[in-house]
């Protein structure tokens, strides 16, 4: 650069001398200023280049650090994703197991419910053989319970408790004596009548005047009760006497009662129960 400047100065001097009108000192000063300006420009460019290199290096370092941080965060997120997937798989397996156990439990509950329904059918069949005074209410209760079990209106626990209570009531009905007063069960009897039931083996309805009595003889094929009408005042009087003894209207005594089969032994009733 210095050689080129010197050559340029000599050229200008030669030209100026040739022209006879060139100011050498002024031209040298101008050239020096230009050279200084060029050097300053070169220095500025060099400094800017150095600053750019430094800035670029800083940028590269920041970018690498950012990439490293992003990579660490990405690896952490991927690790969390794997952990979440494993947790989700474990939960899914647990949910599947719980659902399977629930289905098995529901199947067991349904099986037990079906057994309760079958038990109701057997109880209704047994209760249907009881005398009408005991059979009607028991069969009604059993049928209502069966419908609730079949429609799943109640749970198995309540169904079991109610069946247990029904069985208890049936057992009590087989050993107690029941007396009612009201409308006769058959049209042949007139006026106010007394109904007498002894356990699950005997039931009769007698007119309050003791003229006629109806003795339960079992059930017809259609399920309706079958009655034997006895118009013998003596027989009706026996039934009426048993009612009076039971209610305390007469002194305790043995009373012969007519059963369904006249060949069977007679039953006796005194105050306090059947004999």
Characterization of the model:
This protein is about 65% helix and about 15% strand. It has helices at about 1-20, 25-125, 130-150, 155-175, 235-245; strands at about 175-180, 195-200, 200-205, 215-220, 225-230, 255, 265-270, 275. Helix 2 (about 25-125) runs antiparallel to helix 3 (about 130-150) and helix 2 (about 25-125) runs parallel beside helix 4 (about 155-175).
Q: What structural category arises from helix and sheet content?
A: alpha+beta
Averaged pLDDT = 83
The total beta strand count reads 8
**Which segments are poorly predicted (pLDDT under 50) over 5 or more consecutive residues?**
262-275
The DSSP helix count reads: 5
Beta-strand residue fraction: 5-15%
Key features of this structure:
275 residues; 3-stranded antiparallel β-sheet; 5-stranded antiparallel β-sheet; alpha+beta; disordered C terminus; 8 strands; 63% helix
Question: What topology emerges from the helices and strands here?
Answer:
Blueprint: H1 2-19, H2 24-127, H3 132-150, H4 156-173, E1 177-182, E2 193-198, E3 202-207, E4 213-219, E5 225-230, H5 233-246, E6 256-257, E7 267-270, E8 273-274
Antiparallel strand pairs: 1-2, 2-3, 3-4, 4-5, 6-7, 7-8
Helix pairs in contact: 1-2, 2-3, 2-4, 3-4
């Amino acid at each position: 650069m210095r050689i080129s400047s010197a050559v340029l100065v000599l050229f200008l001097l030669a030209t100026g001398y040739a022209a006879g009108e060139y100011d050498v000192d002024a031209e040298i000063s101008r050239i020096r200023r230009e050279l200084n300006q060029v050097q300053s420009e070169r220095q500025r460019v060099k400094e800017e280049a150095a600053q750019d290199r430094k800035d670029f290096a800083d940028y590269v370092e920041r970018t690498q650090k950012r990439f490293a941080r992003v990579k660490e965060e990405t690896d952490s997120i991927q690790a969390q994703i794997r952990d979440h997937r494993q947790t989700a798989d474990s939960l899914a397996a647990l949910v599947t197991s719980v659902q399977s156990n629930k289905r098995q439990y529901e199947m067991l509950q349904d099986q037990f419910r079906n057994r309760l329904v079958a038990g109701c059918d057997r109880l209704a069949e047994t209760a249907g053989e009881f005398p009408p005074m005991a059979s009607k209410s028991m069969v009604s209760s059993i049928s209502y319970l069966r419908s609730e079990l079949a429609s799943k209106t109640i749970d198995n626990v309540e169904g079991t408790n109610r069946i247990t209570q029904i069985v208890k009531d049936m057992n009590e009905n087989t050993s107690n004596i029941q007396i009612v007063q009201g409308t006769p069960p058959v049209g042949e009897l007139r006026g106010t009548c007394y109904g007498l039931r002894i356990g699950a083996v005997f039931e009769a309805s007698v007119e309050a005047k003791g003229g006629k009595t109806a003795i339960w003889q079992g059930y017809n094929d259609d399920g309706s009760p079958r009655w034997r009408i006895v118009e013998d005042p003596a027989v009706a009087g026996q039934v009426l006497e048993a009612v009076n003894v039971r209610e305390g209207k007469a002194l305790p005594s043995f009373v012969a009662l007519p059963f369904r089969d006249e060949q069977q032994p007679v039953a006796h009733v005194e105050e306090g129960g059947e004999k």
